[in-house]
Inverse folding.
């Protein structure tokens, strides 16, 4: 059939393992043949109406949810505007290939500004901040980890003057979305099944996944559901995947509703301004760049910004809502003086903690970028390509600075059976932004070797940053100043996290695999002495890894709080008919990955909007049983 036979055919077949996974013929391009939800119907420029009842800006983790729930109101015409394109099937569906989407056309490709306290060993002293420019937003680029955060996070939100945002209230909205397909969790009082968002473990795992958990138990932690009654402990990760493939919010919430006649979805529609009457301060429409021209679309009821923690504050400032002095400097007429862009928070970790393993049990590229792995994935939804961005196990632990009795851990671990060098430096080191100097002096020698990474994450950083406009032109990326590790307490907690990772590595469970720390010193840090606290602090300041969780730039809070941008019903303070519903409204960063909390925000925002317009909603479920105290 191919014009080959005998030795020639054998040589051809044997060479197939060299084909990189992202371009292999057996990629998941045929998924839609048996996916019950086909792609959304895209509204063309000519089909767009002049006016809608509701306009949602941004089709990400919150925007897709809000679009689904508000279009349930048959009397409302709903428009969803997304600056990016539809999901690319082959790579985005494959969980283990998440890093391949970074720096791609579906990534906004933001970068932070250089700072003196962190990211010193990254390219240009900058951190890559991938954000999804695509239907599904960052849920198309992320590592799919299903983590809700800690109950105290949400109780703290409520204590800060946000009624209705305590844990007992938001739990309902986590469960509303969820379709958990692991029976031992689906029937617990903290989980549910039947929602739009599929949640399950990867169907395949390395031997290290179990060892990671066993090692945690040997350190005194329990193996438990980190999204359940208590958070402290270790767990094989659950993710937003379905049949071994990524379940983005576009796939979960938009595809099932594509036939609703009151819904329009426009892609490559870049909103450049929210139009607000300067006298009445009522938002009446948006200006969007669609089809090569600027167009104004009216909204009779609501405009909801769900453009994310970078784009939502940028769009507010471009529209005249933001810090007065900054807008004046940019030449933008001030409609509402507001602390937009402040309160920026993000999860960071030390990304350089690599360990060698003396057994072939890790995700080394040549071993798994082959025909067998591609066939397992494309035919059965199984195999190593289904691993959640490479992350197999999650843990929440206490540093010595944390009150153990509160069950509010301050360090999270992502345990990954691979390292920055597992693909020989082809893709991962560029996605993670590792500089050539750091690569060549420390990590290059690990290329294609069996390694794993223990990534300690600072859960509640005290350092805060800000976002400011670089230009009044809407297509110019804003300045991002994350201010990582500016507070000394953040450095101290992260160093303790590194020490816990080292203790984890020498447990019997890990030593059965011949684990050793990759101890090649950072040339920039040797003056502090090997493996001292100051040495590890220096390392963390050089290999500072974002966990891709920027939040807080449109802070939710009471009107009496001068830092608040939106109130507890997510209405922009001082502006009528305009809300923000995405990660930017978080007053404090949650203690865990942010994708699922943002989906929860979308669910809760939808009910609040319906309530405010007199639309009946389903009653809130009763809270779960009282939390018990473990002795």
């Amino acid at each position: 059939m191919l014009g080959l036979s005998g030795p020639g055919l054998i040589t051809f077949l044997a060479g197939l393992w060299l084909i990189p996974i992202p371009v292999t013929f057996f990629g998941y391009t045929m998924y839609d043949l048996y996916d019950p939800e086909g792609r959304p119907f895209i509204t063309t420029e000519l089909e767009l109406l002049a006016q809608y009842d509701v306009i949602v800006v941004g089709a990400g983790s919150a925007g897709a949810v809000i679009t689904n729930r508000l279009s349930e109101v048959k009397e409302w015409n709903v428009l969803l505007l997304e600056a990016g394109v539809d999901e690319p099937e082959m790579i985005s569906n494959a969980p283990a290939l998440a890093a391949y989407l970074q720096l791609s056309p579906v990534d906004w490709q933001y970068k932070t500004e250089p700072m003196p306290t962190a990211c010193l060993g990254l390219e240009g002293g900058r951190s890559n901040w991938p954000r999804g420019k695509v239907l599904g937003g960052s849920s198309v680029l992320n590592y799919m980890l299903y983590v809700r955060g800690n109950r105290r996070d949400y109780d703290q939100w409520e204590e800060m003057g946000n009624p209705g945002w305590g844990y007992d209230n938001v739990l309902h909205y986590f469960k509303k979305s969820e379709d958990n397909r692991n029976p031992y969790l689906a029937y617990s009082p903290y989980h549910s099944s039947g929602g739009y968002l599929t949640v399950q473990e990867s169907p395949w795992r390395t031997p290290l996944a179990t060892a990671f958990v066993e090692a945690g138990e040997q350190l005194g932690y329990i193996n438990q559901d980190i999204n359940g009654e208590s958070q402290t402990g270790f767990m094989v990760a659950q993710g937003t995947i379905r049949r071994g493939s990524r379940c983005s919010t576009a796939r979960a919430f938009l595809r099932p509703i594509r036939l609703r006649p009151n819904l329009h979805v426009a892609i490559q529609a870049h909103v450049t301004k929210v139009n607000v009457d300067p006298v009445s301060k009522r938002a009446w429409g948006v200006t969007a760049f669609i089809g090569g021209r600027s167009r104004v679309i009216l909204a009779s009821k609501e405009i909801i910004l769900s453009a994310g923690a970078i784009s939502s504050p940028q769009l507010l400032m471009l529209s005249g809502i933001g810090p007065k002095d900054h807008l004046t400097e940019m030449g933008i007429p001030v409609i509402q003086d507001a602390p937009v862009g402040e309160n920026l928070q993000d999860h960071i970790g030390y990304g350089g903690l690599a360990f060698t393993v003396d057994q072939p049990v890790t995700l080394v590229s040549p071993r798994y970028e082959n025909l067998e792995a591609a066939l397992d994935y494309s035919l059965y939804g199984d195999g190593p390509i289904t691993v959640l961005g490479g992350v197999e196990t999650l843990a929440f632990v206490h540093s010595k600075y944390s009150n153990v009795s509160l069950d509010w851990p301050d360090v999270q671990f992502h345990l990954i059976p691979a390292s920055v060098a597992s693909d020989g430096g082809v893709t991962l080191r560029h996605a993670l932004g590792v500089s050539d100097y750091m690569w060549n002096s420390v990590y290059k020698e690990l290329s294609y070797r069996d390694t794993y990474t223990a990534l300690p994450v600072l859960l509640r950083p005290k350092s805060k940053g800000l976002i400011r406009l670089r230009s009044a032109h809407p297509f110019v990326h804003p300045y991002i100043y994350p201010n990582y590790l500016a507070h000394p307490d953040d450095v101290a907690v992260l160093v303790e996290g590194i020490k816990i990772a080292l203790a984890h590595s020498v447990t019997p469970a890990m030593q059965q695999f011949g684990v050793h720390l990759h101890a090649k010193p950072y040339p920039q840090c040797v003056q502090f002495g090997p493996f001292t606290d100051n040495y590890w602090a220096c390392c963390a300041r050089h290999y500072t890894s974002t966990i891709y969780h920027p939040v807080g730039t449109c802070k939710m809070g009471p009107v009496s709080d001068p830092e608040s941008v939106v109130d507890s019903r997510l209405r922009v303070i001082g502006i009528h008919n305009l809300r923000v519903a995405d990660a930017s409204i978080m007053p404090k960063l949650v203690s865990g990955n942010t994708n699922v909390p943002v989906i929860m925000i979308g669910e809760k925002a939808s009910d609040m909007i319906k309530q405010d317009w007199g639309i009946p909603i389903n009653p809130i479920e009763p809270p779960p049983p009282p939390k018990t105290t473990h002795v």
Q: What stands out?
A: The domain at 103-129+203-236+347-545 is CATH 3.30.560.10 (Glucose Oxidase; domain 3). Residues 1-35, 627-631 have pLDDT under 50 and may be disordered. The first strand starts at residue 51 and ends at 57.
